[in-house]
Amino acid sequence: MSQSVFMEYKPLSGREFPRFSGIKTFFRMPVADIDADYDVGIFGIPFDGAVSYRSGCRFGPSKIREVSSLGRGYHWGREINFFEKIKVADIGDSPTVPVDQKLCFERVEKFVADVLKNKKKFISVGGDHSTTLPILRQLKKKYKTPLRLVHFDAHLDSYPAAWGFEYHHGTFVRHAVEEKLIDPKISHQIGIRGPLAGSDDLDFVKKTKINVHTVDDIRDDFKKVLKDLDKFGDEPTYISFDIDCLDPAYAPGTGTPVIGGLTTYETQKILRNFKIKNLVGADIVEVSPPYDHADITALAAVDTMFEILSIYADSK
Amino acid sequence: MSQSVFMEYKPLSGREFPRFSGIKTFFRMPVADIDADYDVGIFGIPFDGAVSYRSGCRFGPSKIREVSSLGRGYHWGREINFFEKIKVADIGDSPTVPVDQKLCFERVEKFVADVLKNKKKFISVGGDHSTTLPILRQLKKKYKTPLRLVHFDAHLDSYPAAWGFEYHHGTFVRHAVEEKLIDPKISHQIGIRGPLAGSDDLDFVKKTKINVHTVDDIRDDFKKVLKDLDKFGDEPTYISFDIDCLDPAYAPGTGTPVIGGLTTYETQKILRNFKIKNLVGADIVEVSPPYDHADITALAAVDTMFEILSIYADSK
Amino acid sequence: MSQSVFMEYKPLSGREFPRFSGIKTFFRMPVADIDADYDVGIFGIPFDGAVSYRSGCRFGPSKIREVSSLGRGYHWGREINFFEKIKVADIGDSPTVPVDQKLCFERVEKFVADVLKNKKKFISVGGDHSTTLPILRQLKKKYKTPLRLVHFDAHLDSYPAAWGFEYHHGTFVRHAVEEKLIDPKISHQIGIRGPLAGSDDLDFVKKTKINVHTVDDIRDDFKKVLKDLDKFGDEPTYISFDIDCLDPAYAPGTGTPVIGGLTTYETQKILRNFKIKNLVGADIVEVSPPYDHADITALAAVDTMFEILSIYADSK
Amino acid sequence: MSQSVFMEYKPLSGREFPRFSGIKTFFRMPVADIDADYDVGIFGIPFDGAVSYRSGCRFGPSKIREVSSLGRGYHWGREINFFEKIKVADIGDSPTVPVDQKLCFERVEKFVADVLKNKKKFISVGGDHSTTLPILRQLKKKYKTPLRLVHFDAHLDSYPAAWGFEYHHGTFVRHAVEEKLIDPKISHQIGIRGPLAGSDDLDFVKKTKINVHTVDDIRDDFKKVLKDLDKFGDEPTYISFDIDCLDPAYAPGTGTPVIGGLTTYETQKILRNFKIKNLVGADIVEVSPPYDHADITALAAVDTMFEILSIYADSK
Amino acid sequence: MSQSVFMEYKPLSGREFPRFSGIKTFFRMPVADIDADYDVGIFGIPFDGAVSYRSGCRFGPSKIREVSSLGRGYHWGREINFFEKIKVADIGDSPTVPVDQKLCFERVEKFVADVLKNKKKFISVGGDHSTTLPILRQLKKKYKTPLRLVHFDAHLDSYPAAWGFEYHHGTFVRHAVEEKLIDPKISHQIGIRGPLAGSDDLDFVKKTKINVHTVDDIRDDFKKVLKDLDKFGDEPTYISFDIDCLDPAYAPGTGTPVIGGLTTYETQKILRNFKIKNLVGADIVEVSPPYDHADITALAAVDTMFEILSIYADSK
Amino acid sequence: MSQSVFMEYKPLSGREFPRFSGIKTFFRMPVADIDADYDVGIFGIPFDGAVSYRSGCRFGPSKIREVSSLGRGYHWGREINFFEKIKVADIGDSPTVPVDQKLCFERVEKFVADVLKNKKKFISVGGDHSTTLPILRQLKKKYKTPLRLVHFDAHLDSYPAAWGFEYHHGTFVRHAVEEKLIDPKISHQIGIRGPLAGSDDLDFVKKTKINVHTVDDIRDDFKKVLKDLDKFGDEPTYISFDIDCLDPAYAPGTGTPVIGGLTTYETQKILRNFKIKNLVGADIVEVSPPYDHADITALAAVDTMFEILSIYADSK
Question: What is the rounded CA–CA span in Å between residue A310 and residue A81?
Fold first, then answer.
């Protein structure tokens, strides 16, 4: 029997089939229909229409599937193996439309709505950061309350329109607040750093009181930051992980890299520290394979998925 | 005096300033305002929103500017030096909007309209092949007659809509015929090859009687093809050069490569053979630098620009 | 409904789902069990243990699956669309063992034996060229007669043992003849070229009378070569396509490249010319993605698969 | 109106013209004549003749121009926007001569002399580190006093001649001291690390009492180092930033990388901490684009330019 | 006289012959016969047959030879120059057999046995980590006692067989303990990190009491780790340095990278801290040049060799 | 016994030692002193100081040594094995000086003079094309008569000085004629193509009557060109092979690539056709490894060396 036969929510074994072999699904997990009985569905949103500089993250889902073949399941800190605690499936990619964001978002919203039936949990793999907005819209519709956003990024993503265009990849936080999809006061931005376009980039932060944890904050007093990020209650919580929160040395494969960023060890520490009771969804965005080298950016994304899957497993 | 001082329609001299130095403009020519007194303006349209597979050609204009530093002016066959016969200028890039094609085309059309005042000639540097359509619309408006299109490509570009989207990068020929911007009977497609999606891909050719010169035609009887391409009269003629007419060995840096393609020597032969009395515009599209190697694709584009500039100079 | 739902032997539509999206299977075809009712099964043999210089072709199947997303089905010359004529499926990868060739070949032979039940046809995607031997052994077992081998390669692959090791990637032809798996007198080697290690490299050719078509033969009189390759009868025939038959300009991503090789247009011409009534199997080997650029080698492999699938479809 | 029209000391707006568009000048600033009324002129010295291992930094100015399109102006720590406080211009490249250092330095000295008329400030973009010497010679001529040098580097650059050649890229500090262009006692070297060729490499340090801050010093007690670097008075001060002070993980694109180096965050911290009242010039050298990946080295250089421009703006 | 003349245990001078010139030997040292009178012989074991994911480390020795041209000899901390204290030679590569590990190990064992005659010391340059086992077998035979192993790695390398194959690159520690080649109680593993395949991955550690220093341990209390690693006596000690102990940002060129790893500065600190009286051998493995960028991984390997050579020199 | 022991003018056997192993010498041949009893000495001239655009060919000798590990010796057309007919040795690299051409040429001339004692034959591996001049000077001194030059190149290399510098990499033909080192009337230039800087680029050809064979000549009537190149007598003849005679698809790794160039098959045909009775020296220049991909340019250089070595062997 070949490894093409997908088994019941168990990954293809690396000890039986070399990790470079087999059809590439997220974590070598089975492909499932969107309405199957998985706990956490992983899907891609291959769309990079809204990026302002380098494109290429449309190939994020495909590359991350490939590299996730190296994924293991046992979490040393949490002492759990997500493969054994939760049913994870690859549910394919959302339909997308490369150049027409409006058409594209309609399809993404429909896809996410289908996932959310019966309170399924998920990880969305981008694609650019504009794709978080249609997800949040559906989550709000589902959970009826503004979410807590935990947002890893180099950028504030509350910037104004550009080129006469409103919904580019640096605006989702602003829109999410304006559309009341998230509650800024209980939301966090991690990894933020300058330079900025102007001091007015910070007006949104001041106005909404969203909690910003800059790289300076993390380097100056990491323990305090970890403690600040440890007070989560039952609110529906969403993690949005823009790979450019990492320094370009750790994540060259992205569209708008900013130097002076976080190390993968630092994001691991933050993710490992989380005790999130009600994680309702998560995304990993802005991985642009044409600019990656030796897949190190994709590896960072895969490890982040592992941490998020472990949070899901831990809260079960 | 440094080379940053742009002189009167003369390129920065490679014998005075090394070719790796200086601010990069097309062929090291001066930057001119759109309404200056140049003969041929070269501009970029950095837009890759409508590509169906690999993106990246938004960086085409920037990379081609850089590599054109290697450009020389004397044409061995035509025995002319375009630098001496015509006034060439870099007139910058058209404004573009990455994700919204409609907004983007409005700006491109306005930009091209400004160029066309006073019958300026031009070369547009893409960007993806969807950008040819707004150019043709303005040319039609200017010249009041359907143009002769000379179209180098691996693809017919008369394909149907995809993902519910009408104007992607494989449709411009169909739209140009439907909008009567070009006259298919006197138009040519060069470098076409399979595989196709279906036999119906050829229906458009049959219906419109556009002249198709496949790679097989060129390899089987190049002289005949050259002769077929030698009967141009006074009609306003437009050259659209999709770099993927070349084989991926010669042009790896493109979005939808097709093997079994032309060599650069073959496209040179065809271009050198042209006697086009009324060339009104031209474009070079689909150069995607993130997928190029050692700039060989960009070099092919620069040489094609040289050939087109020599045609302009020759007809003067 | 997402594209993760595999449909009945139809590819995922590129006009509905962008080609950069979706889980990567060969030609976006459904995954099938090894004993399903497909006509032609495509599978990988991810093994590069027997290469003599650069490794990396263990990643061949994975990369070729990805790049085959660009695959179309309509053959301009044969005027058929293989998607409509035959049932093609991705049947996954054969189990392999990276370092132990003996163990590995046992598993490959078992896998191929399973495919061959009920006279299924197939394309095997390597992996290195040593993997052809276990396939030929099973075909011999199935068809009870030495096969006609049509072998594209830069190398004769009838070399002696190296480093005390008998079955490296340059010996399969010698073993296939010695084990009477193929009949050299009706077999062909295409694309062969020097330099050789010594004149004794040609002894095998002289002794067995295998038909060698060098690059010189092809360039000197292509029509004659095409005619020589046109006399195939009902014998079970096998195509083994080593990507290094191509020149490194066309196929840099391989382990032991030899310059002065074929162009993709030439191999297309040869493949398109074939009228093979009884093709029983085929392989494409030695694609080494770590050494490829912009996937041009993988694209050449995908196009070769298209040609072979069209031969299967044409003979049906 | 296109973005090719250079405006009055304002950068091309990223919110109007996408950052991947437009002719590439430093920070998208206007091109100015060397004697225009800018405050700080940025120019390139594209010369890599004096490197001892990998060449390629002749392409530094061109690549850094391109990547500086991503540059923003607001400094979070200093709370100023250099775009608003000082007039910055791209004044092109100094003339250079690739293979003849003597000829080359004559031209560089003449160019720098022209810049220094009327006490213009500048940033020079290398080019290899030998180019700092002709700059320092002109600064000495202008300011009549040995400068304070603030020198970021992995290497001491006080090495002896090599291959019978005196002025290679590892000797500028020695020559600057010998020619009394800098005062070693108030000068600093930051990021220095071994291995060395011999213990005598340190003789120069001992003799001249130049202040060396090794990576060990910085990692052992960063606060002390920052304090040591905080005692600058009114002396004319010059910053020379060799990108190889950074670890190769952060700056692979350089000629003689040394592991165990600084992070970009550490150099940012040092630069942000500076209060330099009389910065008279600065350079960024040894960025070698052919060895860079995803432009991360160039991005580090651009950010360093931003920090230096902010120092200029802050002292105004 | 050209630099092809190998002199008496002195490196080719970088001040006489540029470092990019000359035939590439380890540290530009002379080539010596295996039984010459060197103190420390450096040799390669170009074998990557046992890797579980990316291959390519068969090219490790060749690339590390090339990059070691940049190697200097003076150790700032230890205040010694190994070039002056010990006789170092490049003794070529061990014979290997790409695909047959058993044959290969026989040859490696014979080669190492030849080196060990007369208690020669050595550094072996891999090749994959399975090659450490035949070395340890010969060292045990020579020294008659289980060695102290100092093992840098991301992985525990005490994993079970995979694909029915016992001696893959993740098993050498288990076999070394089972064969009593090393004494786990006095052995150390440095740089270990998760995720793991399961909690049972840790059973071996618990059972054997091998000393594990995870990345967390190092980041939480580096001084304690350094102290733990400072208690070495006269036991024959062996250093095995798997380059993947480093983070992929510092060492992308390896086969099974794991994020969240060590920096080169950290491994330098550990190596510099060592006072090993009886170092009997060392290896550096898993450098895979096809996945490296700008040779930064090879540079890290070269620097590690420098540190090990300095330990040898220091203990003399 | 390891392969580090260099045997008597026999290459390291690829059937005993895998080709990826061993210290890299040209064609795995022994290293010999400059005055040893070899017939043909191969040496490098690692110098790229005189290039006008991309540097990097200083690494040519090192890379070509590495890739020549793949070299075989039997020439199918000539039916000889150069390994058996002539004594070939790697005699190391000429001393060079990176930035000072005058110093550098003095050393190269001295090195070549040493080689030429006793009429040794040689192949010089560049390095840039300026290095041919010091070689020709010494050959003239040795043979007392202007040589026949057989020059493969895209460029005429009879250009004027640039940047006030006389001996850049595009001038050696002009100087060789002016210094009467070659006789233009019996010399040949092969692969030449435009565009040129001006029509005056051809004045030198007209004046000196050097025989130019353009790419057009070769494509229009290859037989005639081959015949023109077949009339060599006893004159001392020198082959200078600039890798940029090849098309960038075949040789991307070079400094000033020109599209529309020769294929490797075409240069093979020309080289195979040569019957040169008195070949006194040869060089292969302008291979720039940083711009190569998958070593295809270096492979073309190695094959050219093979052809030249076969000419030497054939004339013996």
Answer: 7
CA distance D267 to E103: 51
On chain B, the residues whose CB falls within 8 A of the CB of A103 are 163-165
Q: Which chains touch A (3 or more CB pairs under 8 A)?
A: B, C, D, E
Please report the number of interchain residue pairs, chain A to chain E, with beta-carbon separation below 8 angstroms: 89
With cut-offs at 50, 70 and 90, classify the pLDDT of residue F118.
Answer: confident
Q: What is the pLDDT of residues A252-299, one digit of tens each?
A: 999 999 999 999 999 999 999 999 999 999 999 999 999 999 999 999
User: For C34, which DSSP code?
Assistant: T
Reported as a single tens digit per residue, the pLDDT across D231-266 is: 788 999 999 999 999 999 999 999 999 999 999 999
Q: Measured between alpha carbons, how far is residue D212 from residues B29, D157, D208, D288, F99 in Å?
A: 47, 12, 11, 25, 29
Question: How far, in Å, CA of D28 to CA of B92, rounded?
Answer: 13
CB A283 within 8 A of CB A194: no
| Mean per-residue pLDDT of chain C | 95
8 A C-beta contact, residue F149 and residue F176: yes
- Kindly report the pTM of this predicted structure: 0.97
By C-alpha distance, which of A87, A115, A8 is closest to A313? Answer: A87
Q: Where are the domains of chain A?
A: 26-314
Nearest to A8, CA basis, from A25, A24, A31: A31
List of chain A residues whose C-beta atoms are within 8 Å of the C-beta of residue D16: 162-163
Determine contact: B226 vs chain F, CB below 8 A.
Answer: no
For A56, C11, D24, D67, the CA distances from B59, given in Å and listed in that order, are 12, 32, 12, 12
DSSP string, E223-278: HHHHHHTT---SS-EEEEEEGGGB-TTT--SSSS--SS-B-HHHHHHHHHH---TT
Q: What is the pLDDT of residues D61-101, one digit of tens each?
A: 999 999 999 999 999 999 999 999 999 999 999 999 998 99
Q: Do chains F and A touch (3 or more CB pairs under 8 A)?
A: no
Contact B18/F at CB under 8 A: yes
Query: What ipTM does this complex have?
Result: 0.95
Q: Which residue of B has its CA nearest to A51?
A: B98
Supply C4's token pair.
Answer: 């993760």
- In angstroms, the CA F135 to CA F142 distance is 11
Q: Are F31 and F90 in contact (CB under 8 A)?
A: yes
Query: Could you tell me which CATH number the domain at D26-314 has?
Result: 3.40.800.10
Per-residue pLDDT at D6 exceeds 50: no
User: Which chain B residue's Cα is nearest to D57?
Assistant: B20
Q: How far is CA B67 from CA A122, B60, B270, B311, C188, in A?
A: 46, 11, 23, 21, 45
B21 touches chain F (CB under 8 A): no
Judged by CB atoms closer than 8 Å, whether chains meet at A65 and C23 is answered as yes
By C-alpha distance, the chain A residue nearest B107 is A163
Q: Which residues contact E142 (CB under 8 A, 6 or more apart)?
A: E116, E119, E280
From the centroid of its chain, how far is CA D119?
A: 18
